[in-house]
Amino acid sequence: MSHFTHLECGYCGKIYDKNKLWNLCPECSKPLLARYDLESARKNFTKDKLKKRESTLWRYHEMLPVLETKFRLSLGEGFTPLIRASRLGNEVGMKNLFIKDEGMNPTTSFKARGLCLAISKANELGVKEVSIPSAGNAAGAMSAYAALAGMKSFVFMPKDVPQPFIAECKAFGAEVTLVDGLITDCGKLAAEGVKKFGRFDVSTLKEPYRIEGKKTMGYEVAEQMNWKVPDVIIYPTGGGTGLIGMWKAFDEMEKLGWIGSKRPRMVSVQSTGCAPMVKAFNDGKEFAEMWTGAKTIADGLRVPAAVGDFLILRAIRESNGTAVAVSDEEIFESTNMIGKTEGIFAAPEGGATLAALKSLLNSGWIKKDESIVLFNTGSGHKYYNLWK
Ligand SMILES: *Cc1c(COP(=O)(O)O)cnc(C)c1O
After folding, report:
1. How much is the pLDDT for 184?
2. For FRET with 71, which of 64, 100, 208, 268 sits at 20 to 30 Å CA-CA?
3. Which domains does the chain have, with CATH numbers?
4. Is the CB of 143 under 6 A from ligand 1?
């Protein structure tokens, strides 16, 4: 049974009915967040229940928003390996270094988690057509789950995304529109179709459930580390659902009685070619300014503006974390270093987390004896042309 009770605006706090379809808060146009009856969850959903559960994110179904079992779509997403990276750790002089390998998810990225939940919930609420602007991985994941649900999917991607991203969506039966511009331009075009044809918009944080799928990364890290959270989590940030979701997960788990009050310091990594969150963090701002001329090999980080910017910045600050920008050269070099030491074909976004680790070790912000989790958010396969 799900303990989902209602939606609450992450900015103005207004409450919304869980049985209706919502996008942004109708009052202030900020993201809505799912809330649960944590008192009853604390009594009924104990950690030991997990022992017999399947190895997918649905193992936490009590704390997910889908109400009926038959609407839980699954391609085997989640419960990805948390790898102790000993050889990489040796290279950088660390003993407690881990990689959460999200490239092992269906459609080879952690986007599967978010879209699994968004599409399952949209299906439960009767949606027939879904639409997404995407830098690549989100579109593939949406198309896969939409196919599984028997929905029609409409994808809007920058025309310069690597070919495998496009091929994947087409194979899943999506209608693909390539846009001469960035993800923000794709968003504008997608919005026209939403208005004209009534398609449901599953853009990052513009519906409340992708973040619920992504928060399971936080549950898994805690469970896989035997309920001792790491000192630091390093996460590549685009729209920020993963970071915001994990931060929400730690709060929920404390209220469930699963973890104590210790939190990991959350590190947001971006590319120097597109670093709106790093700039806003350093300037002490509540919201980020739109980044102009965004350019990076890490497609998932090419997000000039994020609707959840204030939630990302809040999570970083509340956790005593930080935000770091790394260059594309450092990203590529670190992606290969993960490959050469650990046998993981990482996405450049994953490489970015190692580049950030090196920089934070150099500055002394991270100490060598701390426990660190790097998030490899995708697989290198779709970015194969970087290795030409
Ligand atoms: C989308 C994406 C990101 C950024 O994720 P957010 O949760 O939106 O910040 C990072 N890495 C990869 C591989 C992605 O596809």
Report:
1. 83
2. 100
3. 82-108+211-387 (3.40.50.1100)
4. no
* Cα-to-centroid distance, 235 and ligand 1 (Å): 9
Q: Which residue, 281, 285, 296, is CA-closest to 349?
A: 296
pLDDT in tens, 167-200: 999 999 999 999 998 888 999 999 999 999 999 9
User: pTM here?
Assistant: 0.97
d(CA 300, ligand 1 centre) in Å = 5
CB of 240 within 6 A of ligand 1: the answer is yes
Mutate to test the pocket of ligand 1, among 110, 212, 268 (most ligand atoms within 8 A of CB): 110
At 106, is the pLDDT very low, low, confident or very high (cuts 50, 70, 90)? very high
Predicted confidence (pLDDT) per residue in 125-179, tens digit: 999 999 999 988 999 999 999 999 999 999 999 999 899 999 999 999 999 999 9
Residue ID of nearest Cα to ligand 1 atom 14: 300
